[in-house]
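chain below, 96 aa
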Amino acid sequence: MKKSNFTEAQIVNALKEHENGRKVDDIARELGITPASFYKWKERYGGMEASDLKRLKDLQEENSRLKRMFADLSLDHTALKEIISKKGWGPTNGGK
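prediction:
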């Protein structure tokens, strides 16, 4: 995903200006973005405060870190299962 040229605080400020009655075209022209980009921001960040955006970013980073950890552990688990089955160290049938 492309990194935005704008900070969360700038995005929130632009959305608040619109909520206070400023036209989207004026805000977009000032920031050098298209009105479509503004509406994408509004869809994604509408109603959020700067602290909410910071928390969202932190949660997204933690989520990606946990996904990487899970993928690593899953690979380790698969490799260990394969080694155990090749060596014949698996559980016995218990006399069945």
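The chain has four helices and no strands. The two ends are 55 Å apart (CA to CA).
thats it, cya
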